[in-house]
């Protein structure tokens, strides 16, 4: 069998080497595309071009008897690398006449990411860190934009102690809550104000396809260039009301993070065997466990700040606790009909999103299964 497999495996290895050469050539072309985009101020992410290209490749794959889904998976992974490589070529400077950009907290993880992006866009960037406060006035002197990137519980106090800024200077923040920081910025500064929330962490390889929401503060015409600049970075920049934003973040962030925190605490108290759970988990349960576990690989201060950011968040968690108790009563009474009735009500409320989420999760589960480390040794407990 070994003699029969070797020539076939040698041919596969040769084809894989050809694939490497082709991928190298593709990335070189991506570098050239990045240079053209930089020169002409084009966004790093072009959704229409991407959709058209994927559609054509899927059709061509079908004609060749190949799986369109497989080809799309490969191309999406290649494109993700391409976006990261395009970023290294820099971006057009949308507002070359703007004064220096000061990032308060620019040595932190998210702050340093914005420092990098502004520098790649050709701006004069300064950093105001904790140890620099004695020189805050000189650092902020002549600034065209001051961007506050500090922990949530410090945001309002940091805004309040900023030196007086020029009337045309834009004051912005990138905190995950918006109403209170905007209120603090409006009180501290008479010029343009805008609240930003990058809906991603500092470990992203590129801003392509990432969402950034912004809530209006004052003089929106003054910061349109900033919105355009982030769009050129590849971000999807969307306006939102500050109150609506914070209400949504209660469900998206505070409640989900607390649920993960509680589940992690329960696993601890139950002294669960994580090795055994992973071994016995199908991809979906492994992915769910991974989403819980990744929380505890990060800063507890960050998540405490997010969850405890407002009384509304705490009230939301309490209502969740109450509903959890109501559903437990169904279990205790072994009321299967009530369980199914509630299930169907929720299913109706989700509507077509249920099928959409089923399709989206399918791709995630395939990736989770592909990356799983297979241990051929039997589990002995």
UniProtKB/TrEMBL annotation:
Localization terms from the record: Cytoplasm
Ranges where the Prephenate/arogenate dehydrogenase domain occurs: 99-361
GO cellular component, one term: cytoplasm
Positions of the Chorismate mutase domain: 1-90
Gene3D superfamilies named in the record: 6-phosphogluconate dehydrogenase C-terminal like domain, Chorismate mutase, NAD(P)-binding Rossmann-like Domain
InterPro entries: 6-PGluconate_DH-like_C_sf (IPR008927), Chor_mut/prephenate_DH_T (IPR008244), Chorismate_II_sf (IPR036263), CM_dom_sf (IPR036979), CM_II_prokaryot (IPR002701), CM_T (IPR011277), NAD(P)-bd_dom_sf (IPR036291), PDH_C (IPR046825)
Protein name: T-protein
